Design the sequence.
């Protein structure tokens, strides 16, 4: 059973193949301002349904993660 999700304004939409087994509460300044919770999926479990050129990306200084979000 796939699950559809989006940002609050619905500009960025996605589907995942199943409900997350757990979520992570990030305490970095970017996430804590937004109350973000993160679930982790393998690439084959995630589908971005918004055109990629309509999504903005924030990259951490360590270059280890990217956060995709609506502009």
Sequence:
């Amino acid at each position: 059973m796939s699950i559809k999700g989006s940002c609050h304004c619905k500009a960025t939409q996605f589907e995942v193949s199943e409900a997350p087994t757990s979520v992570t509460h990030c305490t970095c300044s970017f996430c804590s301002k937004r109350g973000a919770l993160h679930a982790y999926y393998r690439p084959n479990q995630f589908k971005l349904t918004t055109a990629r050129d309509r999504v903005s990306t924030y990259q951490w200084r360590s270059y280890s993660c990217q956060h995709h979000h609506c502009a």
